[in-house]
Specification:
By secondary structure, the protein is mainly alpha-helical. The protein contains 30 helices and six strands. It has helices at about 5-50, 55-60, 65, 70-95, 100-105, 115-135, 165-170, 175-190, 195-225, 235-275, 280-290, 305, 315-320, 330-335, 365-370, 375-380, 405-415, 440-450, 455-460, 465-475, 480-495, 495-510, 515-530, 535-545, 555-570, 590-605, 605-620, 635-645, 650-665, 675-685, and strands at about 105-110, 140-145, 150-155, 160-165, 420-425, 670-675.
Length: about 700
């Protein structure tokens, strides 16, 4: 199942979720009417039993009124509105609120500049996976004090995603196990399972609101009674009715979670193995959950609403049996490690009360292990170093095995910086790689990160220096006068120190592999999100000024500015704008012409080559009538940008067709230049279809 099929399946699951929710709410609404009616009758009988002018017959005469269809309809309608209003309020609270949800659960933001070994290791794994997937690295939060091993991805979109891990995750898992779990969570991010997960949070909150309201009524009455305010049997009865109905609703919510969630956990496990080609890493994490006393449990008060979003079951087994959102551990481990006999007692864990004072360790070895610097680790091994020495936190570094033989070939590719091309005889199958990174992509991301100068990596993790890093990437490399003008623009808006930092970083980025420049910008986006709104406005102004400093926009400037702004603007402008769904490209013939013509002009070195590239793209869009080859001034980068905005509104099936047409156009000569490959990546990103890096031979990709 590819990205587009998974997206269609997610839409079906969303429709199924809405259908289940409506049925459940209708059932709960009717049940609530029945519960309240019974409470009223019981109160009436209780009142008759005391000194009263009324008798049992008066109570019985009240029954037809309670069973009147108009009263039933009104009661059910009010309950329905109450539940739906609570769900809508929760939906509003979660709008672009992944960070707020993480903080509400007690999460602590893990700074990208952290130097703590375990945190640095996790951040590196997340960055590698993000580069391999061609998405912005999500922010990372730690649920401090949570001893269970667990993790989850939260967010309403890829750009809004955050990853939460427990303290037990950081403490117990080695790098390979951490990579397996993070790959599992990235599967949820790439497949946009997070969207349906967040919608389930809304559904669950709506279904639980009656129970919570009932508890509130009873607890409120109890406090009044303790103050001598007298008893309130009517409110107690109504509160009890709400609790009974709400408990049924909570049970139904659990069944809905189970119906929608469990199968997706198997799929995410399978995707994680596809990403890493290391099933034992993921299996090792699951085994440690089975062996750990705390398992994967989480104590946060929000856990019941979000239990379906965690990597492992976050609630006690007694509760989970009724509505299990995750398959049993053994059922998940067996496909990954068929030899496992189910004996968790053999799994080695780090116990809090059994940590020995570590012997003095070699900081360079601990750092090399944390950063997956294979060559450095091998040098330590050749020198006779103890590869099992413990770090400062008492954890034992686990040496990362050479990544399946691809590491050296990737390094050889990076050594050839000039005139690099990619054989593209399989480019017509490019859409199959969307949101489906493999171990080769991850290996390439690892090597790419290791190739970056330390000053560049540090700059990407600092908000101030991240601005300077993006400015340095945009400095003109051909004309000194233009470059000085651009530095002056930086200094005028951000003061002289920013211009100085930009100039220093320029000396580093000018030497970067061309394939590393857009990923470096990706790394910087996470830090740039820490800018204040005013600072972002100034940053955007400088970007526009630098791009237009030479009165022309080249391919790299377009790609970089488009990529950075596309992922920053929703963060500062209240989320992504909704686009109108378009089901046919016939209405977008001009936009398709702009797209293919612009790509043909990039791919072709002369008129004949441009014509061949245009025809190759048009062949893929045979259903679009009246496509015209446009001159360069009719399909410039500004017009291409406007066309992509409109094309982003088409269906998934049509997006796949557009990506295939774009790939056919730029690879019509049988090869992809690096700039053409990055152009494809930006176009796919603009269509919300993240494409893994193309700096590997496509015909050998899995």
């Amino acid at each position: 199942m590819d990205f587009f099929d998974r997206q269609r399946q997610t839409k079906k699951n969303t429709a199924r979720l809405v259908f289940y929710f409506i049925l459940a709410v209708l059932f709960v609404s009717l049940l609530n009417h029945l519960s309240i009616s019974l409470s009223i009758l019981l109160l009436g009988l209780l009142y008759v039993g005391e000194e009263s002018e009324h008798d049992v017959g008066d109570v019985i005469e009240f029954v037809p009124f309670l069973m009147d269809l108009r009263f039933i309809g009104l009661s059910a309608f009010l309950t329905f509105c109450f539940i739906c209003s609570a769900a809508l309020i929760r939906m509003y609270q979660l709008k672009n609120g992944s960070t707020s949800l993480a903080l509400a659960m007690g999460g602590r933001f893990v700074s990208p500049s952290s130097t703590e070994p375990k945190e640095r290791q996790l951040l590196n794994v997340v960055e590698e996976m993000a580069i391999a997937s061609s998405i912005i690295a999500p922010n990372v939060f730690e649920l401090e004090g949570e001893r269970g091993i667990n993790a989850m991805a939260v967010g309403s979109s890829v750009d809004d995603a955050v990853v939460l891990v427990t303290s037990g995750f950081l403490r117990q898992l080695n790098r390979q196990e951490s990579q397996g779990v993070i790959a599992h969570e990235f599967s949820h991010i790439l497949n946009e399972d997070m969207k349906i997960n967040m919608r389930m949070v809304v559904v669950i909150h709506g279904m639980m609101v009656l129970r919570n309201f009932g508890n509130l009524l009873i607890s409120g009455i109890g406090s009044r009674n303790s103050d001598g305010g007298g008893s309130h049997p009517a409110l107690i009865a109504v509160g009890t009715a709400f609790i009974v109905t709400g408990s049924v609703g909570s049970g139904l919510a659990g069944l809905i979670k189970s119906a929608v969630s469990r199968e997706r956990e198997y799929l995410a496990d399978a995707s994680a193995v596809q990403f890493t080609r290391n099933p034992l890493g993921l299996a090792g994490a699951l085994k440690k959950i089975g062996a750990l006393k705390y398992g994967s449990r989480v104590k946060s008060y929000k856990v019941e609403e979000v239990s379906h979003m965690f990597f492992g079951s976050s609630i006690r087994a007694a509760k989970a049996r009724l509505s299990r959102t995750h398959p049993p551990l053994l059922d998940r481990i067996k496909p990954l490690d068929p030899a496992f006999d189910g004996d968790f007692s053999k799994v080695k864990l780090i116990e809090v009360n059994q940590i020995e004072t570590p012997k003095p360790s070699d900081p360079s070895l601990v750092k090399a292990v944390a950063f997956a610097e294979i060559e450095a680790v091998e040098q330590h091994a050749e020198a006779g170093a103890d590869l099992n020495q413990k770090g400062k936190d008492g954890s034992t570094p686990v040496v990362v095995a050479p990544l399946h033989g691809y590491r050296k070939s990737a390094q050889a590719m990076l050594a050839n910086l000039e005139g690099a091309t990619i054989e593209s005889k399989s480019a017509s199958l490019l859409a199959d790689t969307i949101a489906s990174p493999t171990i080769k992509h991850i290996d390439f991301a690892v090597v790419l990160l290791r190739s970056l100068p330390e000053v560049v990596r540090d700059a990407a993790h600092d908000t101030h220096d991240a601005c300077a890093l993006v400015f340095a990437l945009l400095l003109d490399k051909r004309q000194e006068a233009v470059r000085q003008k651009q530095l002056g623009q930086v200094g005028d808006v951000f003061a002289e120190q920013m211009a100085v930092t930009t100039a220093k970083l320029y000396d580093e980025v000018i030497q970067l592999d061309p394939r590393a420049k857009l990923p470096v910008a990706d790394l910087a986006v996470g830090s740039l999100r820490q800018l204040s709104p005013d600072q972002f406005a100034s940053f955007k102004y400088v970007i526009d000024s630098m791009v237009s400093a030479d009165q022309a926009i080249d391919l790299f400037e377009f790609s970089l500015s488009k990529l950075v702004m596309r992922h920053l603007e929703p963060h500062y402008n209240g989320g992504c704008k909704k686009v109108t769904q378009v089901y046919s490209l016939k209405r977008l013939g001009n936009e398709c012409s702009v797209l293919i013509s612009a790509l043909a002009n990039v791919a072709g070195a002369d008129e004949a080559a441009i014509q061949v590239a245009f025809d190759a793209g048009v062949d893929q869009l045979a259903s679009v009538p009246d496509m015209k080859q446009l001159p360069a001034d009719k399909c410039n980068f500004q017009q291409l940008d406007e066309a992509l905005v409109k094309l982003n509104g088409v269906t998934l099936k049509l997006k796949r067709l557009l990506i295939q047409a774009a790939a056919a156009s730029v690879s019509a000569d049988g090869y992809l230049q690096v700039q053409e490959a990055e152009m494809l990546r930006v176009i796919s990103d603009s269509l919300d279809c993240p494409m893994p890096p193309l700096a590997i031979a496509l015909d050998t990709a899995d």
